[in-house]
Design a protein that fits this description.
Nucleotidyltransferase, domain 5; 5-stranded mixed sheet; 343 residues; globular
Length: 343
């Protein structure tokens, strides 16, 4: 049996972060992320500017990832890349680069589903790390997705429930925008909420199915609440910022926790993971840790660097596919829309 080490290069370019990572036999050797500051002044990601920035960043980011891993390009076993979902222009940069590199090195090319990768980040081998057993439930929460997924095997996933309109990350960011906070506002709501009273203001929770989410009505309710109070007191936001942020965050986390409880009842699975950018939120992490004691769940919370878009999650997904000899043809194309159950 071969004992040769398996080195996978992962490339992530689905939105506005250019990232490259090298993993060896499931362990991360490097995980480089180049953020794009250009979008902040526009209050959101501008697709054309994002793809241009990816073109500028991808060569130095990949080079840095390989150097930091202490290897050369010739040591690579395969190149894994994000095929989708994401912004088409951004995806094309990563897809084209990955194809060219794999062809040039004559090594396998592996396409990865970005949303699957968020979940599979839990299988990165870490010292003292917990890896969830099958089956488990994962709450995937990000700027573009809110889903409860049942995972029976690495690439055997079933969506139990999802948002019928907006994603939870958008609810955080739009609420922050209403409050006049800079983009991205979600982390700022989390930060200011630490100093506020979560029960200072009450917002209505949406009435939808047991495993479905809806955040558009909540966003509208927050907007009307702010407009009404600012009309009465122009300094309302400034005087109550911490309490407003705490109340918004409390409402959103309550919605998420209610749905997880429903999923546990529905499936009788008590191994619960979270994934995606919003899983960096301190309150959801705290509530899940409390649920271990209160509900008898076993929870799996990713390291901060594996929550937002990063290439380590692409590399581990590529590694798991490599072990099954699941390679891509060079004719593979990027897909802006891709369900978590596809690929």
């Amino acid at each position: 049996m071969s004992t040769q080490k398996i080195y996978i290069l992962g490339i992530e370019s689905s939105c506005d972060d250019t990232s490259a990572s090298v993993i060896c036999d499931g362990k991360v050797l490097s995980n480089i992320v180049a953020n794009q500051e250009v979008h902040a002044k526009y209050g959101g990601v501008v697709p054309e500017l994002a793809s241009r920035a990816h073109q500028q960043n991808i060569v130095p980011v990949v080079q840095q990832a390989i150097e930091q891993a202490g290897i050369t390009k010739k040591d690579l076993s395969a190149v894994a890349f994000t095929r989708g979902p994401g912004l088409m222009g951004s995806l094309l940069v990563g897809t084209s680069f990955a194809k060219s590199l794999a062809l040039g090195l004559n090594i396998p090319l592996i396409d990865v589903n970005h949303m699957q990768a968020h979940i599979l980040a839990h299988f990165i081998k870490e010292e003292n790390g917990k890896i969830p057993p099958f089956p488990f439930i994962c709450l995937t929460i990000s700027g573009g997705h809110t889903q409860i997924v049942k995972i029976t095997d690495h690439f055997d996933m079933e969506v139990l429930g999802e948002t019928i309109d907006d994603a939870v990350g958008e609810a955080f960011d739009k609420s922050a925008k209403i409050l006049g906070l800079p983009y991205p506002g979600g982390p700022l709501i989390d930060k200011y909420a630490q100093q506020g009273n979560p029960k200072a203001f009450k917002f209505s929770k949406p009435k939808v199915g047991n495993l479905e989410f809806s955040f558009s009505g909540l966003k509208t309710g927050i907007l009307y609440f702010i407009q009404r109070n600012v009309k009465e007191n122009p300094n309302f936001i400034k005087e109550n910022l911490y309490d407003i942020c705490a109340s918004i965050q409390h409402t959103i986390i309550e919605i998420l926790m209610d749905k997880i409880k429903n999923a546990v009842k529905h499936t009788e699975i008590k191994h619960i993971a979270i994934a995606g950018g919003v899983s960096a939120n301190s309150e959801i992490r705290k509530r899940l840790q409390m649920a271990e004691k209160h509900w008898g769940w076993t929870t799996y919370i990713p390291k901060f660097e594996y929550t937002t878009d990063n290439a380590a999650m692409i590399a581990i997904s590529g590694y798991l596919k490599y072990l099954k000899n699941e390679y891509s043809d060079v004719s593979v194309t990027a897909k802006a829309r891709l369900k978590v159950t596809e690929l």
